[in-house]
Specification:
It contains no helices and six strands. By secondary structure, it is mainly β. Strands 1, 2, 3, 4, 5 and 6 form a six-stranded mixed sheet that branches.
Length: 179
């Protein structure tokens, strides 16, 4: 049954009845929470390394050397006698001279440096949002609403007729709610 919306001629409104109902609709709510994300900063860093290295040079030095020559010498008896005559001469030679030297070697290195960033992670959450709606429904009184062999008082309640009593007179009424 539906609530009667058309009232017959001769009906009159005797008052209003308040009806309370709940009207709900789905609402999407965006809920966010703070999170930490990792991002990377690109940098060129110079990396140096210091080492001890031995550096050698060749130096020319001189040293004394005995040089001897064999010669013949004539003696009084007119005889040649072998003779060795020696003297010192300077002789050049190469001598390595080494020393420890600090050597610094540097190179540029490309790096990605991680760092934390504050961010938000958001999600859609559906929820029902309800409001209470109060309707005023008119109450209509209609004469001579005949049911069966007798006249019966009836009214519209929740989309159907409800019996509220019987009358044996010809002036029975029916109570109706109208939207």
């Amino acid at each position: 049954h539906q609530i009667q919306t058309n009232i017959k001629q001769g009906c009159e409104t005797t008052g209003y009845e308040k009806r309370i109902r709940e009207l709900c609709e789905e609402v999407i709510e965006l809920i966010c929470k703070p999170v930490k994300e990792v991002e990377y900063r690109k940098e060129i860093q110079t990396r140096c390394d210091t080492r001890i290295q031995q550096k050698c040079n060749t130096t020319i030095r001189e040293r004394p050397r005995e040089v001897c020559k064999e010669r013949t010498k004539t003696q009084c008896s007119c005889q040649e006698v072998p003779d060795i005559q020696c003297h010192l001469e300077l002789e050049e030679y190469e001598e390595p001279v080494c020393e420890n030297v600090l050597v610094e070697e540097c190179e540029d290195v490309y790096k990605e440096i991680p760092f934390l960033v504050d961010d938000e992670a958001c999600e859609d959450f559906p929820r029902l949002e309800c409001t209470v709606v109060e309707d005023e429904v008119p109450i209509q009184v209609c004469p001579n609403f005949k049911i069966g062999p007798t006249y019966t008082k009836r009214r519209w309640v929740g989309g159907r007729l409800d019996r509220i009593g019987q009358s044996y007179t010809t002036r029975s009424i029916a109570l109706c709610w109208v939207h």
